């Protein structure tokens, strides 16, 4: 019986991607246009913690996790946090109906030729990187995650606490 409980616990743990320390090189560039055609550049978010999520509409775990990213943004509203989603290889005609249907409010950057995915060494979807206020990737995860879970929020809040305070 204990072996069954252990196996069930292991399967549950494996179902959620593990947040890991980034051991890669410098943060790759990320400059893309969004669904509205506006240019968005990661460099412009210095001073803010940025969650960069690579996803696609055909990826079931991506679709499951997207509302969680939206809730994370809402939960930490007022803090220096941005959530950018980067669509992997699809075009607006495919993405826009999904975003509207799911009521996703996060910006969606287009990576139709998968150049950014190559630069970021995205090896599967969903893949998410957390960039600190100085523009350095600090954490990453491969796989679906509950972005409002206590351990995740705590890790992001730690990075937010390192961000410079806004002057009033």
Rg over CA atoms, rounded to whole Å, is: 16 Å
Q: What is the count of helical runs?
A: 5
The helicity comes to 25-40%
Anisotropy-based shape: globular
Order of strands across the biggest sheet?
1-8-7-4-5-6
* End-to-end gap: 59 Å
The number of E-state strands comes to: 8
Q: Give the H and E element order.
A: HEEEEHEHEHEEH
Low-confidence stretches: 1-14
Structural class: alpha/beta
Mean pLDDT across all residues, rounded? Answer: 90
Strand portion, in percent? 15-25%
- State the major sheet: 6 strands, mixed
What characteristics describe this protein?
single chain; 168 residues; alpha/beta; two-stranded antiparallel sheet; globular; disordered N terminus
Task: Describe the protein's topology.
Blueprint: H1 2-15, E1 20-21, E2 31-33, E3 39-41, E4 49-55, H2 60-75, E5 81-88, H3 92-102, E6 108-111, H4 115-119, E7 127-131, E8 137-142, H5 150-162
Parallel strand pairs: 4-5, 5-6
Antiparallel strand pairs: 1-8, 2-3, 4-7, 7-8
Structure commentary:
The chain is α/β, with parallel strands linked by helices and 168 residues long. It is built from 5 helices and 8 strands. The chain has helices at residues 2-15, 60-75, 92-102, 115-119, 150-162, and strands spanning 20-21, 31-33, 39-41, 49-55, 81-88, 108-111, 127-131, 137-142. The strands form 2 sheets. A 6-stranded mixed beta sheet has the order 1-8-7-4-5-6. It has a two-stranded antiparallel sheet with strand order 2-3. Strand 2 and strand 3 form a beta hairpin. The longest helix is centred in the middle third of the chain and has 16 residues, at 60-75.
